[in-house]
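Dear support,

I submitted the protein below through the web form. The confirmation email said the job was done, but the results page showed an empty box. After a refresh the structure appeared. I'm attaching both so you can tell me whether what I see now is the final result or a partial one.
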Amino acid sequence: MNAPAPAALALPAEDRERSPRTGYTRAHWEAVADGLLAAAWRHASPHGARLDLPGRPSRSGTRSDGLEGYARTLLAAAFRVAGADGADPHGWLERYADGLAAGTRGPGGADHESWPLILDYDVQGQPMVEAASVALGLRLARPWLWDRLDGAVQDRAEAWLRGALRSLPAPCNWYLFPYSVAGFLESVGRGDAETARARERALELLEEWYRGQGWYTDGDGRAFDHYNGWAMHLYPVLDDHMAGASTRYGDRLREHLEGYGLLFGADGAPLHMGRSLTYRFAAAGAVALGAVTGHTPLPPGASRRLMSGCLRYFLDRGAVGGDGLLSLGWHGPHAATLQPYSGPASPYWASKAFVGLLAPADHPLWTETEQAAPSEGADRALALPAPGLLVQATGADGIVRVHNHGSSHLRPFEEEKAPEDPHYDRLAYSTRTGPTSGADPADNRFTLVWRGRPGARRRVRPLGAGHGEGWGWAASWHRPVFEGGVPALPALRVESATVVRGRYELRVHRVVGAPEGTGAEATGWAVGPDGPMESVLVPLYGWTGRDRVAAPSGTAFTPSARLPRLTGTASGTSLFAALALLDGAAAQDGGREAGAAQDEAAEAAIASVTGDGGALVAEWADGARTRIAFAPVRIDHKEAR
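What the results page shows now:
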C-alpha cells in the first residue's frame, strides 16, 4: 500500500498541469532536499563535523559513519544552493563551513569532531569515498562556501583531502574519488603533479573499463549495475560540466541513456539489481545529469518524468520515515538489500539525484510538460550486447524486466565459489520484484543439483544478444560451482538463452557434461502470495516435475513470497525449455480470476517445442516460430505471416 510522503518533508501542492504524471516540480525537489537536510542535521555533533544518524553501524565504524553523514548530505546542500545561484534561505552552507573547520582541525583524533584519516582501502578506506563528496560539494558551492573559508581552514581541508591522492583505492569506481578530489584542488589553484597523476590514472582505468553502448564495468570483470550511472558517468561528466569542457564522456552518457532510460517502470521504480540499492533515487542521477548537461537523447519532459517518478516512487513507499530520515533498505527498512559497508548515512548517496537542481527554474527540464517514460506505451524488447543484458518492457502493467546474460560481481582474479550473490547471479531482475534471500529458494535460477548440492551460477560469460521487431534474445554460459567437497565437476557447463516476445520469456538451457542422474531445477519470479503480481513457469521440454515453493523471508517488495519451480534430470548433454511470465496487469484488472486466466494463457502460448538436431524449435500458438541452437549460439525467429 502506497502512502503520501512524510509530513517532515513539507511538500508543496502537486502541479498536475505541468507534471500530469507525477505532480512534482522543481519546488518539490527543493523541498525534499531541505526536509532531508533538516532531519539529518538534528543528529549533528556540537560543531557540525559529523552527522551521527541512528541505526546499525557500518563495518567502518561510527566515526567514519558520522563523516559519511556530513559528506553525503553536503552534496544535496551544494546542488540545492548552487542551483539557486547562491540563495541559501536555511543557512545550510554556513553549517557545513563550521563542520569542515572542526573536522579538519585534528584528523585522526579521538574527539567528537575530528574526521578519520584517509588510508588505503583495505586499511581505512571509507573516508576516501566521502572525500569525493566533500570535494564536489566545495567545488559546486565554491563562491558561497570555499571562498569564504579562512585560509588556515582551506589549508587544513587540502591536507586532509590529499590523503585520497596518496592512498590506494579499491579496484573499481573508487579511482574516481581521488579524481574528483584532484579536480577540485586544481579548480581552486592548488593543483600539482600529484593531482594530475590521480586524474590521469582514473581516466586510464575508465578507458579500460569501457565496454561500449555507454556501459562501463565497475572495475575489472563484468560488473554492470547502477554504479554506471551514479559513479562511472556522474564523476567525469559533472567534472566536465563544472570546467566548461566537452569530452567523450558526455557522448557516452548520451549513449548510455538510450538504453538506461528504459530501465524505469511506469510506477517510477528503478531496476532492482546490483549492490548499494539503498541509494534508491540516486538511480535517477544519470538521467538528471544528462538533462543538465544536454548529453541525453531524452526530451526534457521525459527526463523529469523519470527523475520525479523515481523520487516519488520511494517517498510514497516509506523510504523516508516519520523522523524525516532515509532508512537502510528499499521501500522501508530491508536488511537483505544491504551490504556490510552500509551504515546509517549510506542512503544519502541518493543526494546525487539532486544534480538536476543545477538546471535553473527556467530550464526546459522544469518548464516543459512531463512526457511519458520510455516504458510507458507499447511492449519493447531491447538487447544491450555490451553489458550482455536484454530489456523487456510491457506497457499493460508498466513492468521492466532485465534478463542477465552478462553481469556478475566477480573480478577476473577471484575464484568462483558458491553460494550465489542474489543481486548479480540470477537470470532476471525487474522493477516490481526483488531476489529472494540466501536462506530461501532462489528465484529466476537454473541450477544443477549434484549429491544434494545446488550448483551456483557465479561468473557469467556472454554469448551474444540481439533484437528484432517485437522480440529479443540474449545468451550466456556458466560453470556450476558447488559448496563443500568438490567445487566443480570436469567439463560441466550450462548454456542459457532467453527469448522475449511481448510479456513472455522463453528460457532454454543446454547442459553439457552432466554425470548420470544429475538433478535439474528451474524457478521463476518471486511474488507475494496474495498479489498483485502473477508468476508462471510452464514446462515445455525436458522437465518432469512442477510445483510452487515458499520463500518465507520474502523480498524487498513483499514480506513473504512464492515462486514456481520445475524439476528434472540431466545426463550428459540435455536440453530444457520453459516459458516464464511475470504479470501485473491481470491482478490489477481482475484479481485471482484474472490471474488464473493468465496461467491458462501462458500454458497455451506455445503450441509445441521439438528437438531439431541439438536445437529446440518453439511453435507459438499464433503461428510464430523460434529456433534456438547452441554450439554456436544462433537464435532465429519468424513471425506468422
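Response: this is the final, complete result; the empty box was a page-load delay. The mean pLDDT is 95.
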